[in-house]
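I trust your eye. Have a critical look at both lines of this record:
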Amino acid sequence: QPIAQALQGSRPPTMPVQPLSTTALPGYLFTPLGVHQPFQFTEPGNTTVAEDPCPPELRKEIEVGIFFEGVNPPPPPEPRVMLELFRRYRGTPFYFAGATDVLGPWDNIDSALDRLKTELCKTAVLSSDGSRVVICGELVVDLFGYSQGGAIALAVAEALTRKGITCTLKNSEGDSISAKAIPRIRFVGVV
């Protein structure tokens, strides 16, 4: 009974409200898609709130499909599995033909990562004060591979997951500023 009397009329303790921090590490910024109001972000120890620097046309989902053919694909009259899928893909497709030697297709990993970087970094902007790069878009990747191209597709998926993609811009003082994003791998299909 004394506890019940003590609790009457008292309010639960309140916690001070802090702005939402969307900064995982200094220089890395995540902006959720579909948010129509300006986002807020702060850095640890900093309570300054910044406005969203992303124009609406850059706040988008970029669908990219990458298709890797195997080694020694059949000559043109024969159907190529990945080429047929490539032609039907609804997003932005990139096709990498197979090579005639075993090591040739492995060069396609760097080419695929470069193309993904180009697509994502089209949506990168500098913050109003020029101190950070903000990646406004979200990259959604579908990977397809046939035979050895399947192994390459898996290698690209691992590289994206481990390293992500870094976009670098120069501010008005000529300093290079970078931000990193981890694309969403929606699908990996290997045959």
Summary: Residues 3 and 10 are 11 Å apart (CA to CA). The first helix runs from residue 2 to 7. The longest strand covers residues 61-68. Confidence is low (pLDDT under 50) at residues 3-43.
